[in-house]
């Protein structure tokens, strides 16, 4: 196993210690135990504007996204990381608005590095308040990640998700927490 992999955790909840953040931290803990360096970005409260469809990032010799906001340093962190952990609660049958803003702005990522998604390893962590991943809409977000990263050439290493409404409720699901930790270890390894 290669030591020193860089993993970027992107928290898309308005709660720093919400259920999806708890799952993401378990993934991060498993990755750290496997020798990875982990950095976490809490998206809520950052100034991340929606994409304005100007296509400046897609032009030849583009210098990147034309919007000068808090997404600029995140682009660099994404390029430098070997893997990403993407965490979100389910809001209105899909990912949170905070995470969707970040994801839409990833349209500009190719302006910051050649084939920036190619070879990235991704773990997804989600929490929902419904009875199951289908009636809650969790599957809608999971499918979005699968479609987007398959198209972009990244590899989803694994997904952990579970029902939990109040902050901290996810801690009662010990099997899911173990699964999240194992996913972190797998994310930090060289191959699947």
Notes on the structure:
- This protein is α/β, with parallel strands linked by helices and 192 residues long.
- The protein has one domain: Rossmann fold (3-Layer(aba) Sandwich).
- Helices cover 33% and strands 19% of the residues.
- It has five helices and five strands, in the order βαβαβαβαβα.
- It has a five-stranded parallel beta sheet with strand order 2-1-3-4-5, sandwiched between helices.
- Helix 1 packs across helix 5.
- The longest helix has 15 residues.
- Could you say which structural class the secondary elements and strand pairing correspond to? alpha/beta
Q: What is the CATH topology classification name?
A: Rossmann fold
CATH architecture: 3-Layer(aba) Sandwich
**Count of separate structural domains:** 1
Lateral arrangement of strands in the main beta sheet: 2-1-3-4-5
CATH-defined superfamily: Flavodoxin domain
CATH top level label: Alpha Beta
Distance between the termini: 12 Å
The total count of strands amounts to 5
H/E topology pattern: EHEHEHEHEH
Strand content: 15-25%
């Amino acid at each position: 196993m290669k030591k020193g992999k860089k993993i970027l955790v992107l928290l898309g909840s308005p709660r720093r210690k919400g259920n999806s953040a708890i799952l993401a931290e378990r993934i991060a803990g498993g990755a750290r135990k496997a020798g990875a360096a982990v950095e976490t970005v809490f998206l809520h409260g950052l100034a991340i504007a929606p994409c304005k469809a100007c296509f400046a990032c897609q032009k030849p010799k583009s210098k990147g996204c034309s919007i000068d906001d808090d997404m600029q340093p995140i682009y660099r962190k994404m390029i430098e990381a070997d893997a990403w952990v993407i965490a979100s609660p389910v809001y209105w049958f899909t990912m949170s608005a905070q995470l969707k803003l970040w994801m839409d702005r990833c349209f500009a990522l190719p302006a910051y590095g050649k084939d920036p998604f190619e070879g990235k390893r991704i773990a997804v962590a989600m929490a929902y308040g419904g009875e199951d991943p289908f009636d809650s809409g969790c599957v809608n977000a999971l499918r979005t990640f699968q479609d987007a990263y398959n198209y972009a050439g990244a590899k989803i290493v694994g997904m952990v998700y579970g029902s939990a409404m109040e902050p901290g409720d996810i801690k009662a699901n010990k099997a899911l927490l173990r699964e999240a930790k194992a996913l972190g270890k797998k994310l930090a390894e060289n191959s699947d």
